[in-house]
Amino acid sequence: MPDNTTAKKLKAIFDPIFNVAKPQAHVMPLVLNSPHSGRVYPAEFAAASKLNDTQLRLSEDCFVDDLFATAVKFGAPLMSANFPRAYLDVNREPYELDQSMFHDRLPDYVNTTSVRVAGGLGTIARMVSETEEIYREKLNFAEAKARIETLHTPYHAHLEGLIETTFTKFDTVLLIDCHSMPSATRSTTGISRPDFILGDRCGYSCAPQITDFIEQFFRNLNFSVARNQPYAGGYITERYGNPQRNRHALQIEINRALYLDEVNFVKHQGFARLQAMIDDLFQKLESHWPQLLGPYQAAAE
Q: What is the set of domains in the chain, with CATH numbers?
């Protein structure tokens, strides 16, 4: 465990660590999660970074929690982080770290060789976006450990509890992991991205009929949709998706240009339209659950 002083400090900065918006009645076998929409940047973190405030926000899934907030009125809980992805990423294993970022040698249980670490995007990220290095100096492992145990561990404990409660109630559950992506790559070519990317770990985390249904919903509205390229889902879909046991996890990436001024980080007129469309998606899911998930019946309250 982190020392009490460090833990208390982090809990005070991120108060609360995460938010859970709960419906009046949980009537859908659905859990929404927005792990990268946190907007609280500690002063010490900003001071230790070589980046300015705007650059630090490049990896933030800005306002995604607001986009999906209406899920609650349809009878599903929504969980969201208050800490930013640049500070701690819960869509990674608990200890997925880059040895080059640390003064001291990392313990043997740390995963230092994953593709995500190699790309600079471990549990404690080395960079934001695709090119911007975060830190001026190397860190101590004790700092990373404190962040992980104070933020990552309780976040997943609560998310897992929401999923298990939903599964117990309905004998099935769909976790939608809500994300956003820059409208174009930051390479010199600036290749535009599709409107939506659905990540189901290439079929391993979600039943195909669910992914098909959501893809067709977006396509019927003339949006461009890709599957699993370049985002197939991260640690969250990998950990919680198990279609063979009626536990489904699907990652949805939304092109930020649909709802956000990406330079100034403010909502534009497309936000309301996109939120209304997401409302429509929930309505259609509500009426198609038996076909998508098979027969289910909520347990008695």
A: 4-85+144-293 (3.40.630.40)
